[in-house]
Fold these 2 entries.
Entry 1:
Amino acid sequence: MCATALVGTSFGWMPSAQARGGEAVVCVGKESIEFSPGLTLDPRPTDVTARAAYRCGGAGAPGRVLPATGHILGHSPRSTCVTLNSGRARETVRYGDGTASEISYTRSSAGRVAGITVVTMNGTVTEGPGKGGAASRTIALLPHALPTARLTPEGLQRAVGRVQLEIHP
């Protein structure tokens, strides 16, 4: 799930009210993920917990950026260290202006290139700024352990990487 390069550009922050008014919000940052039980070569049900630190912006106010945090809880019915399938997940995004959005992810896909796993998740904003809008996040992750961790009974328990979240009206 870690990073091919997520391209970061300069973003201007738009206030939360504008996110509902037709402008996209784009957040980029770093993410830390924990898998329980750890990912191995054998498919098994896995709980996923992730924390993201974002910098968010949009076209509403060029040059302004707002910090945000994300907390994700999900469950994958059959994940391995090669294919991370995320059945469903929920994310709470808390913006630096005190507002928060709840996002429900219902679709995901994953691919692996040169030891990097890239996961794309798609869903809908169910509460808060952007409510009713489409949400898409891409996570590019590197394992937080040696590749041989997947061969142990404990498996790969952590990964870190770059994330980009987009919320469209």
Entry 2:
Amino acid sequence: MSWRPARPTGTRAGDPAGPGAGAAARGRLDPAREACGALLREAAERGDAYGRGLAEYEYGHVLRALGEAGAALRHWRGALTALEGTDAPVLHELRSLTQEFSPDGRSARW
């Protein structure tokens, strides 16, 4: 799975894209959110932990772009659990993403 959702601007306060950009981003990200949900269901039906891990990873990026940092963290942690011990090229990034959060789920970066 090499598809990565666009990381749009305008989804958070103070973003350089300005007012109204968040609504446009949400319109592009809603289909990505649905696609990630479908991938997660398919991976679960097949018992495919690797595929589930990659889908969780992508879903986390979509959720973060939608401003849902806590939900993004939950999916990234799930991805890390599913992919640990594999040769998945996203492991380094997943470790970094999950380490940027405090224990209460708040990000130090956003």
